[in-house]
Amino acid sequence: MRLRYGLVGISLGLLGLMLLLAACSGGASGGSGTSVNMSEYKFDPPTLTVKANQPVTINLRNSGTLVHDYVVQGMPQEVKAEVQAGRSGTVTFTPTQPGTYKVVCTQPAHETSGMVGQLIVQ
Ligand SMILES: [Cu+2]
Question: The whole model's pTM is what?
Answer without folding.
Answer: 0.74
